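Issue 218. Parser rejects a valid record. Input:
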Amino acid sequence: MASSLNRSNATSTRAPGGTRPLPPRLYTPTTPRGQPPPPVLLPRLHIPLQLPRVQTDNLPLSSGDQAARQQSREVHDLGISTSAISQPSVTEMSNQLGQLALSPLRTPGTPSTGIRDDEEEYSLSDSNIKVMRKLGEGSVGTVHKIEYLPKRKIMARKLMAVYPDATNHRQIMRELKLLKQCQSPFIVKYYGAYFSADDDGQSIAICMEYCEGGSLESVYKRVAKLNAHIGEGVLAKVALAVLNGLVHLHSYRVIHRDVKPSNILVTGRGEIKLCDFGVSGELVDSIAQTFVGTSYYMAPERIQGDRYAVQSDIWSLGLTLIEVSQNQFPFPPPGHPQLSVIELLEYIIHMPVPEMDASKFSKDCCDFVRRCLFKDPKDRPTPTQLLDHPFIVKAASKKLDLKSWIERVWGVPPKKQ
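Output the parser choked on:
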């Protein structure tokens, strides 16, 4: 039996001459039945499927540019072709990963006796690690908590499948080289990598610092289950850490390009660190033209396929702070009908930006986030400029026991004295 909707359409008025009835009107889930669909107010969004490669060989180079160019050549010297390559052999991959082992680091003035944690070198392989449990899984790989048996050290290991594709191979090697170089208290430590082969195929295992407090995403979701919210003091420390991490990356001419709550980790000591540079890339004249990263956190200029710079990470930081403060992603606002991916991206570009709740957060906090979310990237400040914002200056001078905070979040009992 036909439904009432089909019966009503079957009795549609015929045009003179007995022509066929008009096709039934389609209603979207957000359109109440019996009402015409709302007018389309937003222009069609064009997302480029593939953008041209930026040609930089003939550009004049500063000393910083020359260093970045040399770094790129060094990655190619590891045996990576610029054209399609065959699946690398176990020996080739092992040799390349061996060259990217963590070298001993020593800060000037540090006593020569004793080795700091970040000076240790690890001979990593499947035979001397113990997989403890899965921490997460994403588009770029699976992350496990592991134990490095020779030193009884807990680490996080990310397994990334190896594909017979030059671009993917270069990206992985670039990430490893970057991880080796980026030694900062605001970026997760890199311990080394090794080639792993099992029944599921060939993978590169990247071993990094294990952050007991989890990601900022898991933290705020835990807080939400406790019917609470993360306060301004913690948000300020998050912003301070992310800005310092971005400034450090920028010193290597790198944009993170995937700042979001799941890529901001908290250690058991309450340290806040950036992770996951799988979509990072070297800057060319401080401008990039690639369309990668998590769409929802992209700045408007990136969504539209325009050229972008380090300010695009600032937009993502602003969205992250609002999301963490209200325990949900800020687009679209609460009460708005659910949107498809394309509709959501259109909404982000054309509709007003979200704001911090002025009744719950200080004027400085609200102003900081407002500046992060300037839609015009020319008006949006850089990470270095935002370090001078009153909200961040105050956060840097204020002591906050984040170790006790993260322990309370996860219900860790205090240690007995």
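Fixed in the parser; the record now loads. DSSP finds 13 helices and ten strands in the chain.
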